[in-house]
Specification:
76% helix, mainly alpha, 0% strand, single chain
Length: 225
């Protein structure tokens, strides 16, 4: 868990610095930071999909995952409940920033592969690299949305901690195929978040989060036959 603790620490440090800068940044600079973050999220999402798609053994699984996940998320109204919950504690557009932060921090190749490498090989390279990237990202996010972005650090700790424990318990069940499919879906969600930040298309990204659960279930069922 050393790598995860480092990752979380970098986010908290970045959020602290960003929230300090927030008070001295003019609205025009906030706008350009939002645009920069939107472009970064878009590129990260596209890169994840482009890198993993050629390695996919189930090239249509991501479509099924997004469709089923979207239906489930919409039925549960995850985005609506999330917005209401965040709105109770903060004004402004923190909900949008926090949703973006959670996706950027948690749904990426390094954030998924890092805990697995740490659990199986005691290799923290991915997590240390991810921590540095998340630290920089958190400065930009917190300077725009405020210190409330630090909530995402707690979500990241639970996320990576869960993957770490599962990797220890399910050593033989984890496969490159499964990681590829999850990363493709995750990349699309990050891309959707970037489009929202750029005001190109507002997408209820959180309603699509259940899509991440479809690949493990689908692959497990397919392996039975």
């Amino acid at each position: 868990m050393i790598g995860t603790i480092f990752n979380v620490s970098m986010i908290l440090i970045g959020c602290t610095l960003g929230s300090i800068f927030k008070h001295g940044i003019k609205p025009a600079y906030h706008d350009i930071l939002m645009q920069a973050l939107g472009l970064a999220a878009t590129v990260i999402g596209i890169n994840a999909v482009v890198q993993r798609m050629p390695q996919s053994k189930y090239p249509v699984l991501f479509i099924v995952s997004l469709a089923l996940g979207g239906i489930i998320g919409q039925a549960l109204d995850l985005q609506g409940h999330f917005d209401k919950l965040v709105g109770r504690f903060s004004g402004g557009n923190l909900a949008e920033g926090l949703a973006t932060a959670i996706l950027l921090y948690c749904i990426g190749s390094l954030s998924i592969l890092g805990p697995i490498e740490a659990a199986l090989k005691h290799d923290y390279t991915f997590l240390f690299t991810n921590g540095i990237l998340d630290g920089i990202t958190s400065i930009v996010l917190a300077s725009t949305f405020g210190f409330g972005i630090a909530i995402a650090a707690g979500v990241l700790f639970l996320w990576q901690g869960s993957i770490y424990v599962l990797a220890l318990v399910l050593r033989s069940a984890l496969s490159t195929t499964l990681i590829n499919e999850i990363t493709i879906v995750g990349g699309i969600l990050i891309l959707a978040s970037g489009l929202g930040l750029l005001n190109i298309k507002k997408i209820n990204t959180l309603n699509l989060l259940p899509a991440l659960l479809v690949p493990p279930i689908a692959i497990a069922i397919l392996n039975l036959f």
